[in-house]
Amino acid sequence: MAKLAPIEAALAALLEGVAPLESEPLATTEAAGRVLAEPVLARQDVPGFDNSAMDGYALRIADAGECLPVSQRIAAGQPAEPLAPGSCARIFTGGEVPEGADCVVMQERAEVTEAGIRLPAELTPGDNIRRRGRDVGAGSELLPAGLRLEAAALGHLAGQGITEVRVRRRPRVALINAGDEVIEPGTPLAPGQLYNSNRPMLTRLIERFGGELVRLAKAPDDLEATRRLLIEAAEQADLVITTGGVSVGEEDHVKPAVESLGRLDLWRLALRPGKPLALGRLPRPDGGEARFVGLPGNPVSGYVGAWLFLRPLLGALLACPALERLTSVWARAEFATRTQARRHYLRVTLRFTPEGPVAEAFADQNSGVLSSCVMANALAVVPAHSEVVPGDSLECLWLLEDS
Questions:
Q1: Per-residue pLDDT tens for 32-76?
Q2: How would you class 140 by CB atoms within 10 Å of its CB: exposed for 0-12, middle for 13-18, buried for 19 or more?
Q3: How far apart, in whole angstroms, are the C-alpha atoms of residue 131 and residue 48?
Q4: Of 172, 176, 242, 177, which is closest to residue 207 (Cα–Cα)?
Q5: What are phi and psi of 43, to 5 degrees?
Q6: I need a surface site. Which of 240, 246, 257, 300 has the fewest CB within 10 A?
Q7: What residues contact residue 128 under an 8 Å CB cut-off, 6+ apart?
Q8: Phi, psi (5° rounding) for residue 112?
């Protein structure tokens, strides 16, 4: 029997020679979820002027403890005049701190009298003032290359008046389901058939991982037809993904089709679920190549394989570090298990307690039980030839997005 390939070797082979895709300009209004191809520099200071952090009174610290007349009223969006000596200014949150003032007293600490505003004696210079450039200085790096543009980053761009950025082109992905027995929902099942749960599941994951699905197809149980389909897919896509057909059955034609057309880097990995997982490359007429990932037809194996291999590959094509690796969390196991020759990736739910993270494993970890993936928010990594008992500390890979 052929030796099973370790996960680290599979990832190294998968990512060998991967170069980031080209960049393209894009309006910031359309850039949500895209990956920056180059750093963005700040055009202006944020905030652009010293402003008040709350409603209150602006004054000179030298006048603290005095009863001062109000010389001006400053609302947000209004220009401030220099502060008249021996006076204070009524100011509101976001209002420009007038020249000459060096602190703001919140209105709850001020006493309004007929003679003026009596202010506390114990004040500190700079109290309740947001200084110009505190957040961002003009000319500094606003956002780094490789950042995925989510809500806060989009707000940062808008705050600078930036309307266009350069982003990585989304990787084009072809998804091919193998097996005559697999049919689409909406069609009555005949004996021996099953519905295609892989297509919607992987479509969503591909989108989450930054890919653009350019082709959906079904490969019949025929070697030549599978070859033709793979050739067409490689012409259209940066990445060709198949589900099923990579095992050793007489009707498993994907593996021999890939071997006859291009290069199969690895097949049969030392992991569970997902041992029959193939990685390779398919040639293009222009002399380039499309990456190939053959996921098992079993939906649970496909789900786990997508997180372990599709996500880092798409992350490398996008030059996005956050996608290239999953966040690791160490948690206390609340389950028992034992492994043999393969590393296990158990579907678990992480709970965060005062004593630290706790991992609860889904009761049935069989690779045919897709229910184990629905509520899981992490994969517990159990090394080969090991035993886990409740209380042991385990590495868990976080399956939720960071942003």
A1: 999 999 999 999 999 999 999 999 999 999 999 999 999 999 999
A2: exposed
A3: 9
A4: 172
A5: -90, -20
A6: 300
A7: 52, 53, 54, 56, 103, 104, 105, 106
A8: -85, 120
Q: What is the DSSP letter of 308?
A: I
Would you give the DSSP letter of residue 148?
A: B
Answer whether 384's CB lies under 8 Å from 269's CB.
no
Interatomic CA distance for residues 33 and 118, integer angstroms: 52
Angle at 128 between CA 123 and CA 132, to 5 degrees: 125
- What are the C-alpha distances in Å from 72 to residues 57, 58, 102, 203? 10, 10, 16, 60
Q: How far is CA 291 from the centre of its chain?
A: 22
Q: How far is CA 288 from CA 235, 238, 265, 281, 284, in A?
A: 9, 10, 16, 10, 5
Beta bridge partners of 56: 91, 106
Tell me what the mean pLDDT of segment 177-199 comes to.
90
Rounded to two decimals, the pTM is: 0.89
CA pair distance 331, 106, nearest whole angstrom:
45
One-letter amino acid at 103 equals C
- Whether the Cβ atoms of residue 216 and residue 241 lie closer than 8 Å to each other: no
| CA nearest to 277, candidates 250, 245, 253 | 245
Nearest to 8 by CA among 320, 386, 343, 246: 343
- Four-residue CA torsion sign, 261, 265, 270, 272: negative
Inter-CA distances, 205 with 186, 198, 202, 235, 377, Å: 22, 10, 5, 22, 14
CA–CA separation, 79 vs 349, rounded Å? 54
Look at residue 195 in the predicted model and tell me its pLDDT: 92
